[in-house]
Amino acid sequence: MSDIEPGIEFDRVWKKFQRGERHDSLRDLIPATVRRLTGRGVRRTELGHDQFWAVRDVSFEVRSGDVLGIIGRNGAGKSTILKTLTRILPPTLGRAEVRGRVGALIEIAAGFHQDLTGRENVFLQGAIMGMPKSLIRERFDDIVDFAGIAPFIDTPVKRYSSGMNARLGFAIAAHLSPDVLIIDEVLAVGDFEFQQRAFGRMKELARSGIPVVVVSHQLDRIAELCTEAILMERGEVKFAGPTSEAIERYLAVEQAPSNPDSPVVLESIRVVTAGEVRSGGVVRIVVEGRVNGERATGREIVTVALRSLENGRMLSTITTDHGEVQLPRAGAFALEFVLEMNVPAGLYGLDSSVRLKERRGDIASGPGAHLQVLEGRPFEGVVQTNAQVSLASAPEERTAPALQPTRSGTA
Amino acid sequence: MTDAAGVLVPRRQGPLGDLREVASDLRSFRELMFEFARRDIRIRYKQAVMGFGWAIFMPILIVISGVLIRVAMGQAAGAGVGHADIAGIALKGVGWAFFAGAVTFGTTVLTSNHNLISKVYFPREVLPLAAILAQTFDTGIGLLALLLLLPFLGVTVHVTLLWVPVLLALLWLLTAAVVVFLSCANLFFRDVKYIVQVVLTFGILFTPVFYEPAMMGPRGALLMWLNPLTPILEGLRLSVVQGHSLLEPLTTVTRQGVEVAAWHPASLLYTAAWALLGLFIAVVVFHRSQPAFAENV
User: Fold this and answer.
1) Residue B122 to chain A, least CA–CA distance (Å)
2) How far is CA A229 from CA A85, A221, B195, in A?
3) CA nearest B66: which of B205, B202, B201, B210?
4) Contacts of residue A96 in chain B, CB cutoff 8 Å?
5) Is A214's pLDDT higher than 60?
6) Number of C-alpha atoms within 13 angstroms, CB side, residue B168?
7) A72-110, pLDDT tens digit by residue?
8) What is the band of B185 on the pLDDT scale with cuts at 50, 70, 90?
9) pLDDT score of B130 more than 70
10) Which of A408, A341, A337 has the alpha carbon at shortest distance from A375?
């Protein structure tokens, strides 16, 4: 394989799946055969009863040094692409070519045999993943060290905790030396410390110059690892290009449109801080909008919610009410929110919305933005943004910014 | 090949191309095959109370039931059961135990490894072959035990013992054909394993393990010889116990004075044809349906 340039090529790949129950007893063989022989069977290019295209016309190419991210909602076809890449599923139509030995960082602890010891399973699993025995022997100690289960290596795997199981599984996969690397969402194994170690190893592998494909819902990981990304939607490629743009589009899809009939219409939300944002750093956000003088009651407030895009959890809500900022009676306005990003590195969403004073729930939603926070000052504890809100510009009068810091909600 | 829209339709290759692919896959995944076999053997012996005794348990049961049946038959016909008869039953019993054991484990080998098949790619052929290898190990132990026993049953060393490796190779190939085919069939049709169990339970009565084909009379013997296992098992008995050269035909005379063929050299070719043709078909069918395994397992 060494004489071939490793790479991945997907050329107009389609994959058909069967919905609902499959008949799988011998009894069903006869009618199916009769249908096929009489030419009433379903053609490859057509959909039969209860069939659907899980992947439609997907093409991409990954060369050495490329790290391609695949993002999209559940059911968008990511896993199907992954399984086609690893040769588990054949494409119905099109060509899926992977040149070189494929290493897959997927959840593999499932392949462990419960009655065998950790040591025996390392050799078995290594062989299953195509590792020569000499290589497994050479890396055995590294694998065990990485998994951190040295004292239990001669214990049957059935006595392992689920964390130990997953850690050993990842450690084996992470010590393959593949020509092509495929990474599935495996970061959710083990404790925090192990996850960090696993991600570090993944980064190392991804940057070793081999072609890499990453499938994940953890957008911050995608943003950090990938040189390019494709956004999948209902089996089709919605966007292919720079990672940040793919992520932006993915998040934009999730954004609810602003209602133009609302008393306060929010038009845009922008992160105006130049350069990168690190943990503990300050970020400035400008929200622009317009007050509909005829409908507004003067009780409207604007909120910006900070949300983790890794788990969707709402971390903090900052409102103009907290900052005691009064919106103008009518016309355009621009609000500046200043937040201390006392959050761990990751990808965050900022959602704007309109509420009524002392009421819960939004009366209108506005646009959203996202923000990547890089590793910075070590962060611990609950989220405390020490947010400040001020009216940046108003049509008639310039209001002095309300400098009183507001305490926002905690995670 | 492309369709009207220019989308590539996966092409089909000839059966010889399939064979070439299987051969190269097996070459590069040889280690995995042995690793799977080792796993199966380890698991079988790890928790079993009897340990390695397990390997001879089934052959011993077969031999005991064979001897019982022959004693009953002998009582009815007024003839005893000699040492040579017991030696023959033991030899054929081990052969049958290999076939039955390999088919039992091999039929379900794909479905019981479904978590691997749906997650990791490797040539699936290694699974049924590893199941046969594991059974080969078991049978090897059984054969060793038999080797120690045979001198006590009056079996001496003949030149015809040289036939044994040939017969065992035929048995292995025939078993491989059946196992490769059935493992694949059971993946798509889950009722196959039940059918296989029933057939194996009664199959020993349709195969000359407890008796010799000649005992069925001329017409019965002919039917018996149609079973591709018959030449292997009878060949083992004749070459080891009787010291008969398998290149020579043999006839026996029944109690009623009728001449019945007890051996014909051509029967080896008949079995070889079954084994090789069967293996060829099984491997091609298996290899062609392999891409659909993950979706159906």
Assistant:
1) 7
2) 16, 12, 50
3) B210
4) none
5) yes
6) 14
7) 877 788 888 988 988 889 898 998 988 888 888 776 666
8) very high
9) yes
10) A341
Which residues 103-132 of chain A have a CB within 8 Å of chain B?
104, 106-108, 110-111, 113, 115-116, 120, 123-124, 127-130, 132
Predicted local distance difference test score (pLDDT) of residue A380 = 58
A375 residue type, one letter: E
Q: Chain A: nearest CA to B120, how far in angstroms?
A: 7
Burial of B198 (0-12, 13-18, 19+ CB in 10 A): exposed
Q: Has residue A398 got a pLDDT over 60?
A: no
Residue A371 CA to residue A276 CA, distance in Å, equals: 9
Q: How far apart are CA A94 and CA A24, in angstroms?
A: 27
What's chain A's average pLDDT?
80
Query: pLDDT class for A178, splitting at 50, 70, 90?
Result: confident
Identify residue A208 by its one-letter amino acid code.
Answer: S
Query: Which residue from B minimizes the CA distance to A21?
Result: B296
End-to-end CA distance of chain A: 51
Can you tell me the distance from the alpha carbon of B235 to that of B214, in angstroms, rounded to the nearest whole number? 14
State percent of chain A over pLDDT 70: 83
Q: Give yes or no for a contact between B285 and B184, defined as CB atoms under 8 angstroms apart.
A: yes
Mean pLDDT of B148-162: 89
**What is the value of pTM for the model shown?**
0.77
Both structure tokens of A59: 């093409």
B3 contacts: CB under 8 Å, gap ≥ 6: A45, A93, B9
Q: What one-character-per-residue DSSP string does A220-253 give?
A: HHHHHH-SEEEEEETTEEEEEE-HHHHHHHHHHH
Joined tokens for residue B39: 């796993």
User: Which uninterrupted H or E stretch holds A70?
Assistant: strand A67-72
More confident residue, A47 or A212: A212
C-beta separation of B151 from B161 below 8 A: no
* Cα–Cα distance, A83 to A292 (Å, whole number): 52
Over residues A204-209, the mean pLDDT reads 86
Single-letter amino acid, residue A265: V
For strand A102-105 and strand A180-183, is the pairing parallel, antiparallel, or unpaired? Answer: parallel
Q: What is the dihedral of CA A212, A215, A218, A224, to 10 degrees?
A: 20
Residue A190, phi-psi category: left (phi > 0), alpha (psi -120 to 50), beta (remainder): left
